[in-house]
Amino acid sequence: MDIYLPIAEVAVNAPLIVLLGAVVGFISGMFGIGGGFLMTPMLVFLGIPAPVAVASMANHVAASSMSSVIAYSRRRAVDLRMGAVLAAGGVVGAFAGVELFRWLRLLGQADLVVSVSYLLFLGVIGGLMLMESLGAILRRRRNEPPPPRRDRRPVWLYGLPLKMRFPRSRLYISVIPPLALGAFVGVLSAIMGVGGGFILVPAMVYVLRMPAGMVVGTSLLQIIITTGLTGVLQAGRNQTVDIVLATLLLVGGIVGAQFGARASSRFRAEELRAILALIVLLVGLRMGLGLFLAPEEPFVLMSGMG
Amino acid sequence: MAVLAALAAAVAAVPGPPLPPAPAAQGRAEISAALTDTNVQVKSDFRGARIVLYGAVFDAAARPSDVVVLVRGPEQPVRLTRKTKVAGLWLNSRPVVFRGAPGFYRAASNRPLDDIANFGTLRRLGAGVDHLPINAPAEQHIETRYGVRDVVVSSLGPDYYDWRRAVVRLKEKSGLYHEDGRGVRFVDRGLFRAEIALPTGAPTGDYRADILLFQDGKPVSAKTRTLTVEKVGVERALYVWAHDRPWSYGLAAMAFALAAGWAASAAFRRD
After folding, report:
1. How far is B50 from chain A (nearest CA, A)?
2. In this structure, are B124 and B173 located in the same domain?
3. Burial class (CB in 10 A: 0-12, 13-18, 19+), A165
4. Are A228 and B80 inside 8 Å of each other by CB?
5. What is the pLDDT of residues A124-143, one digit of tens each?
6. Among A110, A119, B181, B259, which is most buried by a count of CB atoms within 10 Å?
7. Is the whole-model pTM more than 0.90?
8. Using CA atoms, how far apart are residues A117 and A192, in angstroms rounded to an integer?
9. Of A4, A7, A301, Cβ closest to residue B46
10. Is the ipTM of this complex over 0.85?
11. Is the Cβ of A296 closer than 8 Å to some Cβ of chain B?
């Protein structure tokens, strides 16, 4: 059952897209991430022009994050104040990112920046996560106690001005690090077509030292605001949001996410992290591979005139 | 004087696929053609279209005739980049914009074009993928070389033809360009038909089909038929909305996404 996408101007197999949405939604619900980093490369692989895939993903990520954040907020696991500060940075980052992406497309270097960002961020984060989680699994096998958690907070976090209280997270820190983190994730969301959870979650745990229970819900809130804005900006500036594509994806995605969230309770946390790390690492390497292999066809048609 | 008149006729004939100066002689050959469908509607189930063109050659003298059908879609500038190896990495070069490339092109004839007419005639008519007037005006400048004035020089240098050929090759790969030396079939004396296959990626807009009759290597008669490919229904409404009012479209799309996410969490609520 093929369906013609009015903005992407290609025909896709509708059940396949819904299934893809469901699989990515399952992974997203299981690990508490948006799943954009997995979905965008898959869509490009299926023949959807990259600018349309990146822009339409923002709508899908916003929808699936919305469906999970409500559950977290019922459990009072969302730090609204921290979310607002992160989102303020995210708004600036999203504006900058959409303009940057537009400029890169005009230069013809959008592909390069997308490949390098995937290789760099997914490679580094996937590698670190894999090492950390494998270490945890090995220690448990050998019945060793977990290493004492270094609870010392980085000094620079406290030396910066503009301090603010975050009662829910029991933090009293400068607003500059969360603002900068939000802005950085906003830029990535526009360029890579991702929510940015895979960067936000580790950064909130290891840099901002937020309590683990608050991290996922707060990062989802930030992702909704950032991707919501990115989606509107991409539609307004680049006219690349395909509502039919986004709808097909989110139908599968929101259902898959609910089942994923239930399945996650069957696995241990470190095993889940190890699986996620492998997925992240593989996607990053696959996206970066094109930079190193000689292309079969040296010429590439670029979609859109910018 | 005769030379001057011929020259004037040749100059007048340069723009567009021309009608040759009509020989006033009795019993000149004529061609006639029609399309089975002049309006292709792109709906959600659009998977490309096949349009049949049929026609007839009227020639009392029954001279050997060749028929060439050229279908061109709306012109689309093409942006092309080349992967080059820089410090071990394959990177995109600066993009080059080519103009004069139709968004869709099909050349069908009853035998290979090279057997029907010579290079100059084919080039002048834009008949065949190698004869399309594709060039990169932004890369060109005119200078005097070796004492010759008005030489067109491309900043792409000797690679220019690689770039130009790549435009055609990539369009052929996506099914948008095609040259078929057996695409026109004579089904009966003077009666012919050709099929035009539009792929899913065929651009919307006005298409033009030129049906040319060749005798003795010269175009002696021509007809032009037009064809429209347009989005209809929901597809058209969404496309127009997204392009004419992009901000309200973006806001509505996002509001819909957030509402769907909220509805899903409400529907799956178990606690």
Report:
1. 16
2. yes
3. exposed
4. no
5. 888 888 888 888 888 888 88
6. A110
7. no
8. 7
9. A4
10. no
11. no
